[in-house]
Write a structure and sequence with these properties.
By secondary structure, the chain is of the alpha+beta class. The chain is built from 13 helices and eight strands. The strands form two sheets. It has a five-stranded antiparallel beta sheet with strand order 4-3-2-1-5. It has a three-stranded antiparallel beta sheet with strand order 6-8-7, with helices on one face. Strand 2 and strand 3 (217-222) form a beta hairpin. Helix 1 (2-35) packs antiparallel against helix 3 and helix 4 packs antiparallel against helix 5.
Amino acid sequence: MENVLRPLIVVGGAVLLTLVIGWATDLLLRRADGRQSETPLWGLLRRGRVPYQLLLCAALLRGSYDEAQLFQDHRVGIGRTLTVVLIGSAAWLVIRIAAAVVETSYTRYASSRAHRDPARVRRVRTQVTLIMRVVSAVVGVVAVAAMLLTFPAFRAAGASLLASAGILGIVAGVAAQSTLSNMFAGFQIAFGDMVRIGDTVVVDGEWGTVEEITLTYLTVRTWDERRITMPVSYFTSKPFENWSRGTPQMTGVVYWQLDHSAPVDEMRDKLRDILRECPAWDGRAYDLSVTDTTPNTMEVRALMTAKDADDVWTVRVTVRERMIGWLVREHPYALPRVNTADALLPPHRPPAPRRSPDGFPNRRAVETPRADRG
C-alpha cells in the first residue's frame, strides 16, 4: 500500500503545488498589468506561464524523486527524463522572458518616436526582430547541448569531438557556405540600415513592402497581396530600389500623348485645381510641361508630390483619370487622332493637277471653264 500511496502523494503534491504557485503568479501579473497599463511588460510575461509551470513541476519532481525512492528499478531513466524536461522548460521560459522585455522596450521606443522619425522606428524593429531570432537560436543550442551532456555516452565522446572540431568546422563551413553568407547578410541588413521592415522596395521589377526579415530570407508583400521570398544575400549583392530610404516623400509622374492643339496653359491650371481637391497631395510642388513631340502628337508630363509611395500612387491615378475626363468634355480636339485632312500647301504654289485612277491627268479637273460654253 505504501508503494502506491507514496508515488501518488509525491506526484499529486508536486502538481498541486505547481498549479497553486502558477495561479498566484498569474494573479500578481494581472494585477500589475492593471495598475501599470502604460507598459505591456506584465501582460507579455503572462505568455510564459506554461513553461513556468512546467519548470516548477519538473523541479519539484526532480528534487523529491530521490527522497521519495520512487521506481528504483527505473531511477536513472526517470531522473534523466526529468532533467531534460527541466532544461527544456528553462530555455523556453528564458526565451519568453527575453521576448517580453525586448517587445516592451520596442513598444515604448515606437510610441515616443512614431510621429517624429518613422524610418528609425522601422530600423529598430528590424534589428529587434533579428536579435530575438539570434537569442532564441543561441538559447536553443545551449539547451540542446546541456540535454546531451546529461548522457554519459556524449560526455565520453566529448574529447574526440573537440579534437576533430577543426576538421568538422572546415567541412561544415564549405557545405553551408550559402547558408552562412545569408546569415551574415542578415546581420548586415539589420545593422547596416539597408532595408527595414515596412520599407517600400522594388526588386526584380516587383513593387512591394518588406513584411518579414529573418537571418536567411526576406519576404516582400506586393501590391496585389502576393509574397515574394528572397534570400537576404540578394540585397547585399544586387542593386534594388528602396523608396523609404531617407525620407518617404516622393514625386509622381503622369504622361499624356495629345494633339498639338492641346491647351497646355489650361491643362496647367486644371492640374492645380485637381491637386487642390486631392487629399493625397502634400502641397509641396507640381508642374506640367511638354517634354517631347512626334509628327502626330506631343508628350505632356505632369509632376506632383506626395508624402509616401501609397499617396503618390493615389495622386497619379487621380490626376490621370480626371484630366482625361476634362479633356473629353471640354477639349475633345486635344485628344490624339488620325489626321485625314488635305495638307496645307505653301503660299504662291499652284495646286497639282488631279489624276485619274489610271495615272493620267484628269482633263476635266484641269480644263479651264469657258464662259461661252453653252
